Every structure is written in structure tokens, then in C-alpha cells.
């Protein structure tokens, strides 16, 4: 059922974007807050380790967002996440019960269900499926398309990567790592259909790969360098051999995380998935939307 609630959250985000008249990129969460008389303010610098917060006060609210990373996409995603707590059914009640103030934490600490729902809401709000599909077109999703989507939609690169995988008919795997360990992974429906694949879990060691070599030099991550190599499905997932994949790697900067995108245009579109929009929103296991970049 968790998957269903997350789909509903994504759809509500898309609907709110439309309701507020956003029919092209970028959707601006600040404007939506403004028209609801919700004030949006930068977080005081002495409060750290929090990506944002929402404070409920009767019929109105105040949103606070972190500027620590000095990244517009990250800030927009944070504000959209907090708006999720305002619009999603049950969230204001749950926050009111906890005293009326909710702190959202960056990175990959144990997320409650309302955190995941707010992440999916933010993803739908900033990247409605129709706009996202139009932008990405029919082509294979690679790092270039993801970086372009993040720029046009003004959202974080990791959120754009996950959304691309959701909306793309091709096999795509998005993997976020730190050091030699996996932080989380998200597989498109078509990728899952490549075979019985082992799950990549949080804390698993990276396989010997372009990513593990890239992360061995922390500067690569910090300076936002890129690397591209060929890899094989079996290296990452114990899946069938001889399925060649592109492995594109991008350092996500000061946050210390690395994005890896595995994809191939050699692979056929999965016919069972093509017009099942809902299936594309199903996650293989709890994805963690990164706040960093
Ligand atoms: Zn939150």
C-alpha cells in the first residue's frame, strides 16, 4: 500500500501545479506558497542538518528552507517538499499533533512515511509527467538528459534522475553512492524486466566499477567531475551477462554523494509497460530523494 500512497502523492503534486496554472517549466513553488499566503523564508544559518521546515499557524503556515548548499534546485525541491506537508491529506493533522512544527531532514536518515510522500509530491509538482516526457522525448535517458531536466525544472539532480527513470520507457537504473557504499537505488520498470535482479540496498558495497574507482578519489565528487564507461548488468545486479550498459558517473559536490546512471539504448522498450503510466510510478524499494543537488 505504501507504493500506492506515494503514487497518489506524485499525482497530487502534478495536479496542484496545473491548478495553479503551471503548464510549462519551471513550476515555481514559491508562487504557489505566495498565493496561499504561506510565507517562505531562508533558514537561520545557526540551525544545521535540516533541509527545511513548516510551521502551521491556524489557516496559514510558514515555510523555512535551507540555503546551506547554495543550490537553487535543492532549495526549490525543499520548498516543494514543505508544500507537500500543506497539501497532502493527513499531513497538517499529523504535524499539528506533533506540536505544529515539522522539521525535514536532508539526506538519508530513516524517513517517516510523510517524508517520502512529501518527496513524491515535490517530484510531481516540479516535474509533471507530461512536461517531463515532452522534454525528455523518445530518446534514451542518460546523464545529459537528467542534468538538462534538473536545469529546466529547477530541481535537484537526484530528484530529476529518479523522475526521469519513472517517466522513461527504457531501462534506466539510478544509483546514489557515498564512498564505497550504496546510499540508494531506483530502477525503471523496463530495467526491472531485464531479469531477476538482486536489490541494491543501502550500505551495500559498490561493485568494482567506474563508480567505485571514481569515488576512490574524493576530489572527483567534490569538484563535480564526470566519468563514463561501459559496464555489464551482471557486475551490478547478478543479472544476465552480456547485457551491456553505459555507466555514467557524476560527483554531486560538497554533499559527498555520487550519482550513477546505468542505461542502454540497445535494449528494446518493454511493451508491457509502455502505456501503463501507473506502473512507472511504482518503486522497486523505498527510494530516497536526495536533497543534495
Ligand atoms: Zn518533511
Automatic annotation (TrEMBL):
Residues annotated as domain IrrE N-terminal-like: 34-145
Alphabetized InterPro entries for the sequence: IrrE_HExxH (IPR010359), Rad_response_metalloprotease (IPR052345)
Region (Disordered) location: 264-293
Acidic residues bias (residue ranges): 266-281
Database matches in Gene3D superfamilies: 1.10.10.2910
PANTHER family assigned to the protein according to its UniProt record, in alphabetical order: ANTITOXIN HIGA1, BLL7220 PROTEIN
Protein name: ImmA/IrrE family metallo-endopeptidase
Amino acid at each position: 500500500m505504501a507504493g500506492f500512497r506515494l503514487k497518489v502523492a506524485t499525482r497530487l503534486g502534478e495536479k496542484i501545479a496545473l491548478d495553479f496554472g503551471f503548464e510549462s517549466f519551471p513550476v515555481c513553488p514559491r508562487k504557489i506558497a505566495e498565493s496561499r499566503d504561506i510565507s517562505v523564508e531562508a533558514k537561520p544559518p545557526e540551525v544545521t542538518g535540516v533541509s527545511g521546515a513548516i510551521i502551521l499557524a491556524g489557516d496559514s503556515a510558514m515555510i523555512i528552507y535551507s540555503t546551506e548548499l547554495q543550490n537553487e534546485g535543492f532549495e526549490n525541491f525543499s520548498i516543494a517538499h514543505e508544500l507537500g506537508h500543506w497539501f497532502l491529506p493527513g499531513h497538517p493533522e499529523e504535524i499539528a499533533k506533533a506540536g505544529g512544527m515539522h522539521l525535514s531532514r536532508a539526506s538519508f536518515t530513516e524517513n517517516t512515511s510523510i517524508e517520502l510522500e512529501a518527496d513524491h509530491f515535490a517530484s510531481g509538482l516540479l516535474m509533471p509527467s507530461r512536461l517531463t516526457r515532452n522534454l525528455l522525448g523518445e530518446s534514451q535517458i542518460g546523464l545529459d538528459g537528467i542534468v538538462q531536466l534538473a536545469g529546466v525544472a529547477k530541481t535537484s539532480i537526484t530528484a530529476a534522475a529518479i523522475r526521469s527513470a519513472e517517466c522513461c520507457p527504457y531501462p534506466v537504473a539510478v544509483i546514489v553512492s557515498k564512498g564505497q557504499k550504496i546510499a540508494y537505488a531506483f530502477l525503471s520498470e523496463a530495467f526491472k524486466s531485464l531479469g531477476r535482479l538482486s536489490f541494491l540496498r543501502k550500505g551495500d558495497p559498490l561493485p568494482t566499477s567506474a563508480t567505485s574507482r571514481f569515488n576512490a578519489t574524493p576530489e572527483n565528487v567534490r569538484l563535480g567531475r564526470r566519468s563514463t564507461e561501459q559496464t555489464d548488468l551482471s557486475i551490478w545486479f547478478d543479472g544476465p551477462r552480456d547485457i551491456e550498459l553505459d555507466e555514467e558517473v557524476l560527483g554531486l559536490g560538497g554533499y559527498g554523494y555520487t550519482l550513477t546512471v546505468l542505461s542502454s539504448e540497445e535494449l528494446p522498450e518493454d511493451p508491457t509497460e509502455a502505456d501503463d503510466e501507473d506502473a512507472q510510478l511504482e518503486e522497486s524499494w523505498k527510494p530516497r530523494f536526495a536533497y543534495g543537488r
